[in-house]
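Much of our argument rests on the idea that a fold can be written as discrete symbols. Part of our work consisted of pairing the sequence of a single chain with a tokenised description of its backbone. We regard such an encoding as a compact summary of how the chain folds. The amino acid sequence and the backbone structure tokens for this protein are reproduced below.
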Amino acid sequence: MQLDIRLFAGLAERLQTSVLPLSVEGESITADGLKQKLTELYPEAAAQISVSFVAVNQNYAPGDALITEGDEVALIPPVSGGDGSSSVQETSADGLYCITDQPLSVDEVTSKVLDDNHGATLSFVGTTREMTGEQRTVHLEYDAYIPMALAQLELIGREIAERWPGTRCAISHRIGTVDVKEISVIIAVSTGHREACYEASRYAIEKLKQSVPIWKKEIWEDGSEWKGHQKGPWDPTLPPSV
């Protein structure tokens, strides 16, 4: 069986490829078996592989999930939110969720959730900060597994609608280079009352940081580093702690 494994962020850098061809004996392999095989073949990336999740057909796969030839397979390192291609703009069918390499507009995203019967509208705006402690960031670079990232954003919207019925949500995330003070993500939420609005907005950003395959690379004056999930063991299939 022949598989092509998609790689991202630090894993792609370490193995110097974004698509890794892999020959596997037999007609299937489990997600855990795939990670074990990759660890044996690429021991220099063992630490990164061990904390990564396998995605099959743009869904996070449990360890015993079977992978067969023809499946779209990706190895997802801990997410956080590389270089983007020019003029990238992928949007969900309903227009509420977007991934783009173009500058983001708070007014544009917020307008998608305004409702005559909602008394609360909240827009969360994430920007690039210059100083983290004593370290100066020159800019950030974001990479994404775009089709899966968009599907995960839509899933966040559905989860919010289930937890806070009637809530409207829209999310746009930028990829590529994002300079200091520029916007990387906008989450707009509207509800009938402010309590639910605050709660839904907080849930959206925490879930995004936990499960959406978007990676952030900090570029400093004297180096760079990929930043992933930083709240203990990473499991994108669990609900976020809010």
The first strand starts at residue 2 and ends at 6. Residues 82-86 have pLDDT under 50 and may be disordered. DSSP finds six helices and 17 strands in the chain. Helices lie at 9-15, 31-41, 46-50, 106-111, 146-163, 194-211.
